């Protein structure tokens, strides 16, 4: 019997199991009522009296070792199960990298900050708009191309519900419920049915501004835009205003800044003109004031609008506008130092 006990001791010392099922099979083999150790216990009565003490001690050693070894293996499997239960397979793979602000957000916030220090407050409005606030209140003729389904995303017709093509709709909503003085900027996303390329997209971001009060002049507009340009692009920046046309302003102008790459000397970026266009502006058309409930005989105003992507391109020399919406982390990481 001592030989059998010694053999089982060596077996028990080397017990291993790959899974809980194998462990249960080992428990049954050694510790169950019909297991090997209980069989030895049953034969213990046949052991000669002079050997009972020695055999009894060996049997107890074997039983205790088997119980301890199986308990240890069971604890190992339980710990593995707990770890698996705590693992969330839907989580982002480790290590989790901290992000940074998007370049468009950086520039938009900078624009808002500059005009905020001049006295403009932020106004917001819906992206899904009606025809009145996007076109009619802004003095767009009935046959204007922007009202065509080929140029604008229509949600419904009769009445026309569209994705706003500019944040001028927010200006209209502000004028409807406010009386001058009004001094607001309207940042937001806008949509146009454009072919997507390196220089155009079907959605982009604008910041438009509106100032309405008594005795507002074009000189006021020019000075505000000069201050904005010099704060955004540097104190040596110059501006020029070229006559243009917009349905909602009269007179209207496009504003250029001196190229900040060549200092106005001429380079490929500015097409050797020394100037780069950044925004449109003008005095608010009296018809727009009247349509939105403001007496144009008492009040005047100016408005301006710029694309955030355009300003970001100029500031950070991004060559492809599509990169702003592709969420390529390699591109976005280039702006960590700008945060």
pLDDT below 50 for ≥5 consecutive residues: which ranges? none
Mean pLDDT: 88
Strand content: 15-25%
The largest sheet, given as strand count, sense and whether it forms a barrel, is: 7 strands, mixed
Gyration radius, rounded: 39 Å
What would you call the structural class? alpha+beta
Terminus-to-terminus distance: 80 Å
Helix content: 25-40%
Count, helices = 11
Strand order of the largest sheet: 1-5-6-10-9-8-7
Based on CA inertia axes, which overall geometry fits? rod-shaped
Kindly state the number of beta strands. Answer: 10
Care to describe what's here?
The chain has 339 residues and is α+β, with helices and mostly antiparallel strands. The chain has 11 helices and 10 strands. The protein has a 7-stranded mixed β-sheet with strand order 1-5-6-10-9-8-7, with helices on both faces. Strand 3 (154-156) and strand 4 (161-163) form a beta hairpin. Helix 5 packs across helix 8 (218-233) and helix 5 crosses helix 10 (308-316).
């Amino acid at each position: 019997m001592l030989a059998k006990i010694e053999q089982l001791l060596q077996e028990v010392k080397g017990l291993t199991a790959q899974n809980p099922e194998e462990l249960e099979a080992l428990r049954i083999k050694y510790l169950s009522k019909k297991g090997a150790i209980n069989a030895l216990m049953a034969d213990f009565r046949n052991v000669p009296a002079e050997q009972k003490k020695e055999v009894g001690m060996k049997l107890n050693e074997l039983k205790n070792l088997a119980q301890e070894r199986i308990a240890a293996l069971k604890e190992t499997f339980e710990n593995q199960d707990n770890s698996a239960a705590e693992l969330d397979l839907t989580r982002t793979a480790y290590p989790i990298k901290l992000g940074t602000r998007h370049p468009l957000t950086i520039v938009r916030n900078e624009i808002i900050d500059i005009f905020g220090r001049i006295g403009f407050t932020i106004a917001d409005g819906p992206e899904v708009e009606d025809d009145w606030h996007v076109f009619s209140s802004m003095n767009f003729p009935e046959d204007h191309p922007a009202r065509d389904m080929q140029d604008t995303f229509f949600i419904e017709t009769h009445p026309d519900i569209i994705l706003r093509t500019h944040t001028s709709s927010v200006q209209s909503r502000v004028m409807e419920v406010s009386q001058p003085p009004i001094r607001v900027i309207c940042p937001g996303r806008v949509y146009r049915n454009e072919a997507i390329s390196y220089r155009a997209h079907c959605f982009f971001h604008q910041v438009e501004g509106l100032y309405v009060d008594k005795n507002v002049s074009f000189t006021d507009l020019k000075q505000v835009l000069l201050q904005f340009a010099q704060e955004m692009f540097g104190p040596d920046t110059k501006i020029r205003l070229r006559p243009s046309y917009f349905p909602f302003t009269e007179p209207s102008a496009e504003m250029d800044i001196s190229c900040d790459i060549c200092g106005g000397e001429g380079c490929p970026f500015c097409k050797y003109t020394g100037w780069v266009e950044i925004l449109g502006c003008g005095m608010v058309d009296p018809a727009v004031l009247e349509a939105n409930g403001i007496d144009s005989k008492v009040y005047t105003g100016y408005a301006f609008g710029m694309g955030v992507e355009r300003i970001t391109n100029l500031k950070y020399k991004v060559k492809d506008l599509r990169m702003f919406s592709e969420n390529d982390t390699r591109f976005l990481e280039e702006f960590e130092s700008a945060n």
